[in-house]
Amino acid sequence: MNAKKALKTLHTLGSVGMGGGIIAYMLMLTYGPEPALTEAFVGFREGIYSLTRFVIVPSMLLVLLSGLLAMAIHHPFQNALWVWLKAAGGLLIFEAVLASIDAPARRAAEGLRSALSAGTEPIAALNTINDRWGALWVLLGLVAVNVVLATWRPRFAGKK
Asked: Which end of the chain has fewer CB atoms surrounding its CB within 10 Å, N or C?
């Protein structure tokens, strides 16, 4: 398998992992237990953080790195507008994943675990949860747009 095909395969696998991870995150939030300062709920929030740490963030990094490497080794990509649009979308996704998914999931898991251990007031501990549904939907949309751009490969302004 040549480098271009290998990078495309890695890029596709990363996109599937990231999109699937975001969908799993949303499903966990939708069907998970009611917020309470209990061992079960703290474990649930730690599970959400594990999903971000071991699926969403690594998949996002795989997509970003494989895409940038593909641009570097395949010179026609360097002149294609759709590739630059995907690169800009990738940077937006990178920032949004770290700021709106990973950090809040980590803060909630760590805050709830410490609160449970310390016997803190449940209301104060539950205030550490800050799920950003808007960010999840926007990220899922950006992932979908990037997949469409990669599949469709539009020719903007008559470029070949």
From this structure: C
Place of tokens 């709830």: 112
Helical packing angle, 81-96 and 57-73, nearest 10°: 160
What CA–CA distance (Å, rounded) separates 148 from 73?
22
The count of other CB atoms within 10 Å of the CB of residue 141 is 11
The string of pLDDT tens digits covering residues 116-148 is: 888 877 777 787 787 888 889 988 988 887 777
Task: Report the 10 Å Cβ neighbour count for 101.
Answer: 25
Residue pair 136/26 in contact (Cβ under 8 Å)? The answer is yes
Distance from CA of residue 15 to its chain's centroid? 9
Residue with tokens 């495309």: 8
**Cα separation, 97 vs 91, whole angstroms:** 10
Which tokens sit at 109?
């898991």
- CA pair distance 46, 57, nearest whole angstrom: 15
3-state helix, strand, coil in the chain (%, to 5): 85, 0, 15
Distance CA(50)–CA(43), nearest Å, equals 10
Kindly report the pTM of this predicted structure: 0.83
